[in-house]
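Margin note: ligand = fe (ii) ion.
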Amino acid sequence: MYKCIDSGIDFEKFDNTPFKFSHKILNHKALSIESLSKALPRMPKGHVKYSKGFDDIGGDFDNAETTHKNNLTLKETIENIKTSNSYITVNRAEVDPSFKELYDDLIEDAERMMKLKGVGTKALVPKIFLFIASPGAFTPFHLDRHTTFLFQMRGSKQVAVFPQFNPKVVEPTQRECYADYGGLDLTWSEEMDQYAYKFDFAPGEGIHIPFISGHYVKNGTEDVSISMSIIFRTKQSQTWLDAMGFNNRLRKHFAKLGIRLKAIGTKGSLDRLKAFLFPVVDKLTELRKS
Ligand SMILES: [Fe+2]
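Resulting structure:
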């Protein structure tokens, strides 16, 4: 029995295919407006970020706080969220004591699913994010370097999720550079939309976004949207991430030897070998920089 997610989900789809589910935390006390309005202002510096809302899918979501300012204070942004076309994200909400119980329950659910799927027993680097958006705001196309369970609390959304390793959506060299924080902006084109799984998503519903699956979100126009996600890695996705780092750092060098590195996600044993070697590659990259 899951604590936050309704039973009946197909764990075989975990970290492979997106799916929708029902959740049990719609009325959780940590997510009430009263509790959030006390918790947000006392969050440590840097945990609450906000910007102007996006009105297109191709915006620069990663750097929104600096490149897409709304020219309001946080207090003004919260108070006027219904009309200010703004977007607030809370990073690592679990640092506030009001989220402790919910955080533990979400991790328990994540680990239950991981064990069923056989991809590790411990949720690695789990974090809670909150998203509060004005009606109609977009979250532009991007990838998460984590596995995500997104829970809708208020308002509606349409979420488009793309197959995680499809080269027609994101070409492997781009994906691996982005995953390795290689300073790459993802490109969006309308042709990519044909590959999306699209979900309409209302309060009480959730969606699973597999590791590194591209996605974008269109918030409904009728109300403010409040959603929360638990993000984490598994033993398998940490292997994929490290192996992507290996490919990104060494692709040029292997190419000089006439060797084309195989994309991550296509051969498990090779991915594991690359991930095993990645700490050495990472150390060498650091030494070369210093
Ligand atoms: Fe995301």
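The helical segments are 33-39, 64-67, 74-79, 100-117, 172-179, 235-256, 268-289.
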